[in-house]
Design brief:
With about 475 residues, the chain is α/β, with parallel strands linked by helices. The protein folds into 2 domains: about 1-300, Spore Coat Polysaccharide Biosynthesis Protein SpsA, Chain A, CATH 3.90.550.10; about 320-445, no CATH class. Helices cover about 45% and strands about 10% of the residues. It is built from 15 helices and 11 strands. Strands 1-4-3-2-5-8-6-9-11 form a 9-stranded mixed beta sheet, sandwiched between helices. It is elongated. Belongs to the glycosyltransferase 2 family. It is a single-pass membrane protein; Multi-pass membrane protein. It is an enzyme of class 2 (transferase). This is dolichyl-phosphate beta-glucosyltransferase. Pathway: Protein modification; protein glycosylation.
Length: about 475
């Protein structure tokens, strides 16, 4: 990739191949030192007297020759007239094959605040990650080249980051104070996707994909290296990770007008996002993303005089838990039936039922512990699995009793039940056990224990015992 600015061709950013660890904690101009990222109730305000631009707005583009120049001039004029601090506009050209790069460089030669970065790889997520990790500015933002979002929302987007009130800020098209013009197809897909995020991943933000976001650079340096997506799921990955790390996400209702000429394939993007959700869930479960360590370093602590009850019961809505529990239950039931059918060919039905149910019960307890009730780390894991096995015993009793009933000669003429009747019987019994299992999980196994009055004051001391689902820190500037 190459970097150019207005006329000199100099390189205002650090080299974009600089590894993240080389940038972290260096105390470079505009970045908060690493020691400020401790578990406090508030962040330090951004130093607006820094020698580097306070704001770096990235415009990721791919084959946008037609719209780019108008976008840059409009955005530049707005920032010059309305933004009270220094700024830079960075065009991140990710492997365009038309005249996009030449158009960007032409504008950059005329407008001093415009910089152009060319990358050989495609992907919005890839472009944003590389440009943001290399930028010296303390506040980083991005918006789509079509400028569908009214720029009047830029001030409210950036103010909480500059003041230290929030860590990330996003525009949202899905609150009652947002004003949106777009077709019913895009509206339905957008709302359905965000509903899935809130139900399956316990997300609290309302709009993952609005192309209007900002982040503090000190926060970006910590969490961007743990993101992997190179395309559209990057936004969701960043926001989910931010919430899991206990960061504060500020939401701004926006006025948004759909671009009818957008080249984005909505259906393919939605499918890629679903695959991204599965991959992100796996990464957090397997520990590829060290959520507990990041949370210990970045999360805002509770207010000094406040109870930690709210922080300790994230994602606790009954509906969300039911959706996640039901999804895991469907997967467990299918796995149980497959195992039962395979084992039944080798052994009697009661032993096949025991092995199939025990195997899926352990996996089911672990999955519900992590996803349905938002508990990560090793604290209490032995107790949870022990109590889960007690619940499993109830399920075993129901299914074994049902099997014993159909094999007891209760069928007309004393006929022996076939395999499909066995499967139907254990399925019905398993579904009944599932309903009782949810109540026991919610009210007993994974019930939040009250914090002792003499608990250590240092939140980091008990970090491993905190649930790691998203904390309810997302806020919306609606009123």
């Amino acid at each position: 990739m190459t970097i150019t600015d207005q006329a000199s061709g100099t390189q205002p950013h650090p080299p974009l191949h600089t590894p993240p660890h080389a940038l972290h904690g260096t105390g470079a101009a505009g970045h908060a030192p690493a020691q400020t990222l401790t578990r406090h109730t508030r962040r330090s305000p951004i130093d607006i007297a820094t020698a580097v631009p306070v704001l770096d707005v990235t415009i990721p583009v791919y084959n946008e020759e037609r719209d780019l120049e108008e976008c840059l001039r409009r955005l530049h004029a707005y920032l010059r007239g309305m933004f009270p601090h220094s700024f830079r506009i960075t065009v991140a050209d990710n492997a365009s094959t038309d005249g996009t790069l030449k158009a960007a460089e032409r504008v950059a030669r005329e407008l001093r605040e415009v910089t152009v970065v060319h990358l050989e790889e495609k992907g919005r997520g890839n472009a944003l990650r590389k440009v943001w990790l290399a930028s010296p500015s303390p506040v980083l933002a991005y918006m789509d080249v079509d400028l569908s979002t009214d720029l009047a929302a830029l001030g409210p987007l950036l103010a909480p980051l500059i003041s230290g009130h929030s860590d990330l800020a996003i525009g949202t098209r899905l609150t009652r104070n947002s004003r949106v013009v777009r077709g019913p197809k895009r509206e339905f897909i957008s709302r359905s996707y965000n509903f899935m995020l809130q139900s399956l991943l316990g997300a609290h933000f309302s709009d993952a994909q609005c192309g209007f976001k900002a982040i503090r650079a000190d926060i970006a340096q910590q969490i961007l290296p743990h993101t992997m997506d190179t395309a559209w799921f990057f936004d969701t990955e960043l926001l989910v990770l931010a919430e899991r790390c206990g960061l504060r996400v500020h939401e701004v209702p926006v006025d948004w007008t759909d671009d009818p000429n957008s080249s984005v394939d909505i259906v393919q993007t939605a499918l890629a996002d679903v695959r991204g959700m599965a991959r992100l869930s796996k990464d957090m479960v397997t520990g590829r993303i060290p959520v507990a360590e990041l949370r210990a370093a970045l999360a805002r602590g509770p207010l000094p005089a406040a109870s930690r009850s709210q922080e300790q019961s994230p994602g606790s809505s009954l509906f969300g838990q039911l959706v996640r529990f039901g999804t895991i239950g469907v997967a467990s039931t299918l796995a149980y039936l497959v195992l039962f059918y395979l084992c039944r060919n080798l052994m009697d039905p009661q032993l096949a039922n025991l092995l199939a149910l025990l195997t899926t019960a352990v996996a089911n307890t672990a999955a519900n512990r992590r996803f349905t009730f938002g508990i990560a780390g090793n604290s209490g894991v032995a107790r949870h699995h022990f109590e889960g096995l007690l619940v499993f015993g109830m399920g075993l009793a129901l299914t074994s009793g049902a099997l014993a009933l159909v094999h007891s000669g209760a069928l007309p003429g004393g006929t022996t039940p076939d395999r499909w009747l066995e499967l139907a019987t254990v399925t019905a019994a398993n579904l009944a056990a599932t309903a009782v299992k949810f109540l026991l999980f919610r009210l007993w196994v994974f019930r939040r224990r009250p914090v002792p009055a003499n608990a250590p004051a240092d939140p980091a001391a008990s970090e491993a015992s905190l649930p790691q689902a998203p904390v309810p820190t997302t806020e919306t500037a609606e009123s």
